Amino acid sequence: MYKKLRLLMPGLLLLSAAGCIEMSKQEAKTSAKENGMSLGTLGAVEYVHVDPFEKPFEARVDTGATSSSIGAYDIKPFERDGKRWVTFKIKQRVTNIIKSYEMPLVKKVIIKSKEEKLFKNKNTKERRYVVKMRFKIGNQELIKNFSLANRDRFEYQVLIGRNVIYGNAVVDVSKKHLQPTK
Fold first, then answer.
1. 60 and 78 in one domain?
2. How far is CA 80 from the centre of its chain?
3. Partner of 98 at 20 to 30 A CA spacing, among 4, 30, 35, 66?
4. CA 94, CA 58: separation in Å to the nearest integer?
5. Is there a single domain that holds both residue 78 and residue 155?
6. 28-68 confidence digits (pLDDT tens)
């Protein structure tokens, strides 16, 4: 019985892969929504609304990134009522509007850079603070962990990682802006 099953598996995998390739944009969106994925299908770039900014940020959707990140500066930890907090600022590039935040610190993480991954350079680790941020993609409002980072050298101020994608969306990297902006 196992031999027969083993022989059938490659054929079933090919059929399922062929079915995925033939799936249209609308079918993928419907399929993802029907499977309980609140965001449906995301493109490689999506608009993300971050409170209290009025205009959305363009965000890179990266299935290779474990966690999400947002460009911030003047990041300083402090203590309030015996708990660890962090203060920081976000300047939206498109509008030049600056907003200040004070939020509870969720944790500190060590992020490996591309250089470390590619060249095994141990001096390229970066320590980041993580906060829970309220944001909106399409019509879905979410609260997820974001690491605070200097993203000046990156094209996008916001990176959406697997902590947002997993269980909420599928990603079609050949498309952009699949979610409604308001």
1. yes
2. 29
3. 66
4. 10
5. yes
6. 444 555 555 688 999 999 999 999 999 999 999 999 999 99
